[in-house]
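Researcher: I'm preparing a figure for a lab meeting and need a structural model of a single chain. I don't have an experimental structure, so a prediction will have to do for now. The sequence is pasted below. Please return the structure as tokens so I can convert it later.
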Amino acid sequence: MREGDVVARWGGEEFIVFLDETGQEEATQIANRIRRAIEERPFEMKEGASFHFTASAGVTCSGRGETDLEKLINAADRCLYSAKEQGRNRVLVGDSDCCPA
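Model: Understood. Here is the structure written out token by token.
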């Protein structure tokens, strides 16, 4: 993460990442980089068990004129749930209309 970026827990198994001064393309690249890092790293237990995880993400940007934080978060959340419905382990991008409510 870069200086100025913020990661916070957003409910049960969800996290929210605020990327300051970042366009949609770069935000999508960052989300995919995080997704791949989680997918590629096995978590190994002392007992020898190994677990693999995946991540899904929804990305939206305020650069499209939307400045209402709640609307932006809701749009990203809808994209996240659409990503999960489409098979998980993916990043979906859009604005407040990207993924239907």
